[in-house]
């Protein structure tokens, strides 16, 4: 499958912002890191899940956090920006209002449901792996971990800026893990 380009991700976000009377984050470096996160998620899951939230990888449980997420409009209206600060309102764009932390609006039950379903799926895979009759293959995954806030990003390069706590790239540590799965 052809992967989406970063320009396409940017264009899609720009069109959506314009259509809804919003703006993209005016900080070019921060904006690039969010767009890159969206692209990475789309490459991985085939849908652009929120770059600031950990997706389950199961679309039926991630629908509400496919960008633009179900919570964006309420957050922009109340706080001047979405949870990730990808979309902002006019006052934030002009610098009249300083961005603060936007509280997570996604209900905890939704997060719990998604990760229960994910771990059930992982458990099934693990069982299959332990079945020696099932052919297996191994792959090495790399992920980046923000030492300041714990945000985890599954991508090749560390984010330039942490979308949660705004820590710089240097604050990210790389973790390698090997996954074995049934072919
Ligand atoms: S919080 Fe912002 S970036 Fe994240 S999914 Fe919602 S609209 Fe997209």
Task: Give me some keywords for this one.
three-stranded antiparallel sheet; two-stranded antiparallel ribbon; Ferredoxin Thioredoxin Reductase; 5 strands; alpha+beta; globular; 2 domains; binds iron/sulfur cluster; 15% strand; 183 residues; Rubrerythrin, domain 2
Structural account:
Helix content is 40%, strand content 15%. Strands 4-3-5 form a three-stranded antiparallel β-sheet. Strands 1-2 form a two-stranded antiparallel sheet. It is of the alpha+beta class and 183 residues long. The chain is globular and about 60 Å long. It has two domains: 6-94, Ferredoxin Thioredoxin Reductase (Alpha-Beta Complex), CATH 3.90.460; 123-182, Single Sheet (Rubrerythrin, domain 2), CATH 2.20.28.10. It contains six helices and five strands; from the N terminus they run αβαααβααβββ. Iron/sulfur cluster (SF4) binds at residues 50-52, 65, 67-69, 72, 82-84, 86-87.
Summarize the structure.
The protein is an alpha+beta fold and 183 residues long. Helices cover 40% and strands 15% of the residues.
Strand and helix layout:
Layout: H1 6-20, E1 23-24, H2 28-45, H3 59-62, H4 72-79, E2 87-88, H5 90-94, H6 108-130, E3 136-146, E4 152-153, E5 172-182
Antiparallel strand pairs: 1-2, 3-4, 3-5
Bound molecules: iron/sulfur cluster.
Iron/sulfur cluster binds at residues 50-52, 65, 67-69, 72, 82-84, 86-87.
Helix/strand order, N-terminal first: HEHHHEHHEEE
How much strand?
15-25%
Number of helices: 6
Computed CA radius of gyration, to the nearest angstrom: 18 Å
CATH-level-4 superfamily name of the largest domain: Ferredoxin thioredoxin reductase catalytic beta subunit
What number of structural domains do the residues give? 2
Bound molecules: iron/sulfur cluster
Question: What name does CATH use for the topology of the largest domain?
Answer: Ferredoxin Thioredoxin Reductase
Structural class given helices, strands, pairing?
A: alpha+beta
Distance between the termini: 19 Å
Physical arrangement of strands within the biggest beta sheet: 4-3-5
- Just name the CATH architecture of the largest domain: Alpha-Beta Complex
Topology, number of strands: 5
